[in-house]
From TrEMBL:
The gene is patB. Its cofactor is pyridoxal 5'-phosphate. InterPro entries: Aminotransferase_I/II_large (IPR004839), Class-II_PLP-Dep_Aminotrans (IPR051798), PyrdxlP-dep_Trfase (IPR015424), PyrdxlP-dep_Trfase_major (IPR015421), PyrdxlP-dep_Trfase_small (IPR015422). Its EC number is 4.4.1.13. This is cysteine-S-conjugate beta-lyase. SUPFAM superfamilies: PLP-dependent transferases. It comes from the Bacteria. It comes from Nocardioides dokdonensis FR1436.
Length: 384
């Protein structure tokens, strides 16, 4: 059910991921999968294009947006047992745009707590919103077999809240560490944040990618209805180019205020993105099931390949996402991604996620088995 793209298909389908590397180099950097999208998504898009549906997308709150909202509610109920309030999603251009809009319009003034390492645009979005970032370390080098390690350091968050921070920007599940926070951690964060009159802004774009064998995902809004959720079907169902994400708020009045913003503040979402989103959330469960099983196998294969070719690499057990976080410091190379590029594989450098951090890379394992072998053996050739 999960169809691997050939090199030429991938090059045509994923212009950023594959277009940024020369022929012969394996791209394992940006978070896109080398798999064909779910058949239901492709069919819905093909039908929409056949109907000539290329006009402006509708306003938030009208029929098409309502369909996306209903499809997301169904998904959240089936997969997470979360009863999302009716009509609580507002379409936005993409997740990053949604985070920026939320900081501008929905989050209290003051510095923003950002756990590090983080998805790099988190830092940019905070800066562009004119906010100060208050960083909290997640310790990327903790004991990799200790699940409690790399949890959010609530004492450090509290210090920032006491010093005036009023927003906590959470990535749940976490990119790049691939960790999923459990209910008790989320509840403790909620209590801390509420005690300081602050708000959590949570990015759950990787939530459908919690891998088999993990506890059921707990959506942050289900424990803290005062938070702001930004999510999208894009990472899981392979549609980031269609530019559609959702801001979810549980307070209907706040939703109305968000939808009443001038078009110039929120105009980037696309009609085709909404069509894809509805088909992804509503009609792609079997495909998603197959995807998660496949990613679990890929993660196990990666561990085996590393044990064979790079035995001193430390890799976090992957709980979610298709992005593995590798600690390669034992090989004594400050920027392993730069050296790997010279050997025909493009990885994401660790310092992109935490400035100054040496010896780490993020490796995208959502590719064919053959390419995964090439990625590891070429990295090994670069480091040894
Ligand atoms: C945590 C996280 N948020 C947001 C994005 C980007 O989402 P979008 O393309 O919808 O802005 C990514 C992409 O990898 C991501 O990992």
């Amino acid at each position: 059910m999960i169809r691997d793209l050939t090199d030429s298909e991938a090059r045509a389908a994923l212009p950023l991921k594959w277009g940024a590397v020369p022929q012969g180099t394996v791209p394992a950097w940006v978070a896109e999968m080398d798999f064909a999208p779910p058949p239901a998504v492709t069919a819905a898009l093909t039908a929409a294009v056949g109907r000539g549906m290329l006009g402006y997308s509708c306003h938030p709150g009208t029929a098409q947006a309502a369909d996306l909202n209903a499809a997301f509610r169904g998904f959240a109920e089936r997969h997470w047992g979360w009863d999302v309030p009716a009509d609580s999603s507002t379409p936005v251009g993409d997740v990053v745009t949604g985070l920026r809009l939320a900081l501008d319009e929905l989050c209290p003034p003051g510095p923003v707590v950002v756990p590090l390492p983080c998805y790099p645009p988190f830092r940019d979005v905070v800066a562009l919103a004119g906010r100060e970032a208050a960083y909290v370390g997640l310790d990327p080098d903790h004991d990799h077999d200790d699940r409690a390690a790399a949890a959010l350091d609530l004492a450090a968050v509290e210090q920032h809240l006491e010093a005036g921070a009023r927003t906590v920007l959470l990535c749940h599940p976490h990119n790049p560490l691939g960790r999923v926070a459990h209910r008790a951690e989320l509840e403790a964060l909620r209590d801390l944040v509420h005690a300081h009159g602050a708000r959590v802004l949570v990015d759950e774009v990787h939530a459908p990618l919690v891998l088999p064998g993990q506890e059921r995902f707990v959506p942050y809004l289900s424990v803290d209805p005062e938070a702001v959720l930004v999510t999208s079907h894009s990472k899981t169902f392979g549609t980031p180019g269609l530019k559609t994400a959702q801001i979810v708020l549980t307070d209907p009045e706040e939703t109305q205020r968000l939808r009443a913003l001038p078009i110039a503040a929120n105009h980037g979402h696309s009609g085709l993105g909404m069509v894809a989103g509805a088909a992804a959330w509503r009609d792609s469960d079997l495909w998603l099931h197959a995807l998660r099983s496949r990613l679990r196998v890929q993660a196990e294969d990666l561990r085996d390949l590393l044990a064979e070719h790079l035995p001193q690499a430390r890799v976090r057990p992957l709980e979610a996402t298709y992005l593995a976080w590798l600690d390669l410091r034992a090989y004594g190379v400050a920027d392993p991604a730069a050296v790997a590029l010279e050997h025909g594989v493009r990885l994401a450098p660790g310092h992109d996620y935490q400035p100054g951090l040496e010896g780490h890379v993020r490796l995208n394992l959502a590719t064919s088995e053959q390419r995964l072998v090439q990625i590891v053996t070429r990295l090994a050739a670069a480091l040894t």
